[in-house]
Amino acid sequence: MPILSIIIWLTILGGVLVLFVGDNRCRPVALAISVVAFLFSLPLYFGFDKTTAQMQFTENVAWLPSFDINYALGVDGIAMPLILLTTFINIIVVISAWEVIKDKPAMYLASFLIMTGFMVGVFAATDAILFYIFFEATLIPMFLIIGIWGGPRRVYATIKFFLYTFLGSVFMLVALIYLYSKAGSFSIAAFHELPIAANAQTLIFLAFFVAFAVKIPMWPVHTWLPDAHVEAPTAGSAVLAAIMLKMGGYGFLRFSLPVVPDASAQLAWLMILLSLIAVVYIGFVALAQSDMKKLIAYSSISHMGFVTLGMFIVFGIVTNSTGSETTSHAVMGVEGAMVQMISHGFISAAMFLCVGVVYDRMHSRQIADYGGVVNTMPVFAAFMVFFAMSNAGLPGTSGFVGEFMVILASFKANFWFAFLAATTLILGAAYTLWMVKRVIFGEVANDNVAALTDVNRREKCMLAILAAMVLFFGLWPQPLVDVMHASIEHLVQHVTVSKL
Amino acid sequence: MKLIYILTPLAPLVGAIAAGFFGKQLGRTNSHRVTIAGVAIAFLLSVIALIKNIGGDSAVFNETIYTWMVSGNIKFEVGFLVDRLTVVMMTVVTSVSLMVHIYTIGYMHDDPGYQRFFSYISLFTFAMLMLVMANNFMQLFFGWEAVGLVSYLLIGFWYKKPTAIFANLKAFLVNRVGDFGFLLGIAAVVMYTGSLNYYDAFAAAPSLTGETMEIIPGFAWSVLTVTCICLFIGAMGKSAQIPLHVWLPDSMEGPTPISALIHAATMVTAGIFMVARMSPLFELSETALTFVIVIGSLTALLMGLIGIVQNDIKRVVAYSTLSQLGYMTVALGASAYSAAIFHLMTHAFFKALLFLAAGSVIMGMHHEQDIRKMGGLKKYMPVTYWTSLIGTLALIGFPGFSGYFSKDAIIESVHASEIAGSGFAYICVLLGVFITAFYSFRMFFLVFHGKERMDQHTREHLHESPSVVTVPLVLLAIPSVVLGALTIGGMLFGHYFGDSIFVAAEHDVLEKVGEHYHGPLSFVLHGFKTPALYLALAGTLAAWFIYLRKPELAEFFSSRFGFVHRLLENKYGFDDFNQKVFAGGSLKLADKLWSVGDVKMIDGMMVNGSANKIGVFSALIRTVQSGYLYHYAFAMIIGLLAMLSVFIFTT
Prior knowledge:
The complex is a heterodimer. The relative contact order of chain A is 0.10. Chain A is globular. The longest helix of chain A has 39 residues, at 324-362. By secondary structure, chain A is mainly alpha-helical. In chain A, 76% of the residues lie in helices and 3% in strands. Chain A has a two-stranded antiparallel ribbon with strand order 1-2. In chain B, the strands form 2 sheets. Chain B has a two-stranded antiparallel sheet. The longest helix of chain B is centred in the C-terminal third of the chain and has 51 residues, at 574-624. The N and C termini of chain B lie far apart (106 Å). The chains are: A mainly alpha, B mainly alpha. The interface between A and B is large, with 62 and 54 residues.
């Protein structure tokens, strides 16, 4: 059974169906489609063979044979968890929009469903052109979501978002075409095996870097993200942070590292430097924010610093020493990056949804407009403190796992890498909990806060599901790490062999 | 046995979940019943473990409960190590926790957050048990942060109070600074020994003695020293050692029961426990031990001095806690780990007693905490008075009381120690004895004796606290008296701790002290030959003379030595410095990085800048395309001329 195709096309066609169903009945239909899509993605986990790094659940249909472009899908231990995350978050998104979106709800839900299909396609594609098409296609629904349902500065934000990310991926397209001309195929696996000269590797690396660094985003090409987040509707922010950023991280793992390992090794110092800037510099910038969504957006960038750090620390570890123990630490770094991506998917979505909950009531994102929310919304406050703590990387929540692994691994490369990365322990707690202090705690700040009503059943349900996931992977990350282990070990071994 | 060890932390967790999630349905009475039942079970199981352990069966339990994760050949596990050190900690934690749970029924009686409070303190008990029972560094860190979380929640329990929510954020962040070091220490352990498991790491440690690392290029530092100091920075955060002590006095904003449980008896001693647990590592680095002993003695002396000028009853006890934690740290630095744990144990009881007694006074005084507005409470609150006296005598080390044995053991150990810095430490701890006696009895006299300085209304309503409050006081008073005499022989000189604490032969100061030990009675008698006892008496007498006999003297001293007084009142300026430099500085830096770095540089110049450049450029191009035919014709003629002239001149 072509599970991957079913998930992709079920959500895309389902989105179209939702459009036709109309505004009145679109919600249950969208929910049903998202749940069915998630159920279809479960076999990917339970039927996954975790002993191999090979692509699984593969499909291959010739698409444009004259250019050897195929509709080729498949997942390994890196892609599979991200697909599950995507279909899972999709359900939450549909729930979050339930009665909140009154303007054109069918279009809204359809955009999210279609976007989910595209995003699954990004993670599932094993053909470079197919990947590129899905990668670009995701921009369209997100463009519409921010542009139609966004805030007052949505035009500026959408143009910035679109141009930034589009510009980045054009370079990637050039690199892909170059690789095709050498390999004679658009199969990503063929790119992995292709020997490439040093100069070409550097150029290809830079092309990929532009595309993925913008997407994830890395300092200094990150400024589109806070604007996009601030203007996007709640669910848009949640998907943007939870899934779309991960496409950048996934791109590094799927293209940059294995296709041009020598250039990656050569430029690892730059990547590590930028990652550490993301952790420290952006951590400080988050502290200065007065808008809750902007604060969480910056916190996302800072957390993504751990993802790129964990990936490129591999080369720092490998050059530092030799032997089998070395690769094992490198594996820990990359696995930490993956765990961080998944965990951030839950936590950032939850944080944005929390802001959405109070925004729906108060129509303000300014921290200064709040204060003492716990007095009128105790249940919400409990959730908010919980997610804030996981954002600050408290052990027992999933936010701790990835950071812990990356810090341990980077210590092997260099004491100062670990030192700077570990500052997140202080900075992350400072900006998150300071926000919590000003928003949640204290006396009731004003009449608007006094009039707040606590979360309703729908909101409680969606936050509780996310909290359960955060807690589960915090208390037992083994099921997650287990499935990706073979693939990442294979990847690390692959990148330590020169392709020159 | 495994089942018992698993149930011990789980029982309070179940109570916490029940009271936390179903508090409304359960109601007040059932909530405290279920949490107290949970802690009581944990206490009973701990006692069983203790008895089994003392009664010959000292087989160490060291097993994995479940595998958290396997990554990069390193196993991350949740597992228990129960040895003789663990059972002592388990018993101390659960017994004090049980007393505090019972006491809370009275203290929080009218509080709207009653169920929430019980849920939190039970959750704390769970977290603390996980911490002390861990058999690996990851779980230790897990418990370490979890107790920090509960401490955060409890300091900010009264979330409407601005001071409380300031204090809890401060406590969490200062602790995170410590955890920062701690995490790096753990990373070092993992990377150099290849394991998170205590036993594996300890076994691998001796082979690292010669190994160095270059943190700053050109300077080779011993791996073990760096590791131990990093780990100790964690202890400095949690156990509030200078300069990371600043959060503990502010934590008094929380309700009094948790000041007793978390910020006196158990959580703040986690750092002490951790270093004792890591003794196989610390013993390998004398530099680290010197660092420990110096930090500890500074804390013991300087924090005690601040206690003299405090007027808030809880803050006096808080500074005394800081100073006593300093004593324990000094003991660690002198390699007298057993003495540190011994003092940790006796201190847990008498300090919990003092805090709960202070809480009883606060209840009687209608939540007035200023000792200048008290006085003569002796006749109104007899039980509180007598139990406070016992606690105070134990604290100052009055011969025969439990604190006497543990404190004297520390002083003797430091005296015998030959580690660098021990001479300085010896002076500090001796002076500390005088200061401890002075501020303790200053508070005691101001509260219970002398003129009644409260207002008429308060005086009329003064009465002894209910029995749920006084019974825990009495129950805590008993160990405060007898525990020291009963356990000193075994714990310090009877090799009770066996292999759970490792001391290198050349550092074994307790061995030397033990040569003169002939039972608790002779230890008391021996005390009369040492300066400590006389210093304590002098401190008591001085307090009596200044605050009861000639109260005007206090005024005289504070005005005469105004500079010293101000220095102490400002707590040596730590708070101001942190507030200005660290908090204020980082906010300023944050603001600059954002407004200059992100907004002006990246967005202003690069992103929108290039958009603007394109705009300007296209505007320029646009003017060329004017649409007038004669413009184009003219341009064509010029172009034609130019091309022709090029053609002509080149040929």
